[in-house]
Amino acid sequence: MWMRAIAVATLLGVMVLLALPLKLVVAQMSTSAEFEERAAQTASYSIKIRTGPKVTMAMSSTMTTADQGKPVNRHIEVHVFNRSSGAEVKNVVPVVRVTNQATGASRALTNLMACRTSNHRETEPHFGDNVYLPDGRYTMTVAVRQETAVFRDVVLKATK
Which CATH class is domain 22-156? Predict the structure, then answer.
């Protein structure tokens, strides 16, 4: 009898966890229309970057909230795939450098982390973080091992 009670309690606990909204464990993205997406290829990789408004992460303190002494206003994410197989690349963190084309100011983004994001009920792995970047036109370079993809004329503008 007591074994059955334990089994029922365990089953109920699992059902409660499964019933929790997915948004509690993944990043909350803005609408896809607010994000700009670009893709490039290197000899070995297909690399995609997405830029848009900052995202919030429920139940997590890993997402950056301030950058360069200012509140974050953007989210940058990088998706890396093996060019020949199409498989996601998870065993290396890309190095991203942003350069403001008007001022020439350049910096590496040092807090990119592997994460998953909810997008139309599917999860998509990527490396990303929130950052502070003023409105403007940027060049973004993404290095994966010894290969680099360059994304020129990435325009970041105020979001609603």
Answer: mainly beta
Residues 73-117: tens digit of each pLDDT? 999 999 999 999 999 888 888 999 999 999 999 999 988 887 765
Q: Which two tokens stand for residue 111?
A: 């807090």
For the whole prediction, is pTM greater than 0.85? no
109 Cβ partners below 8 Å, 6+ apart? 76, 96, 97, 98, 129, 131
Residue 153: phi and psi, rounded to 5, are 60, 45
SS3 104: coil
Instruction: Render pLDDT for 99-111 as a digit per residue (tens, 0 to 9).
Output: 999 999 999 998 8
Cα gap 154→106, rounded to integer Å: 14
Structure tokens at 69: 């002494």
DSSP 18-36: HHS-GGGTSEE---GGG-E
Cβ partners under 8 Å of residue 93, min gap 6:
112, 113, 114, 127
Please state the length of the chain. Answer: 160
C-alpha gyration radius of the chain: 19
Task: Read off the amino acid at residue 35.
Answer: F
Given 3-state DSSP classes, what are the helix, strand and coil percentages for the chain, each rounded to the nearest 5?
15, 50, 35
Q: Which of 74, 17, 18, 79 is nearest to 46 (CA)?
A: 79
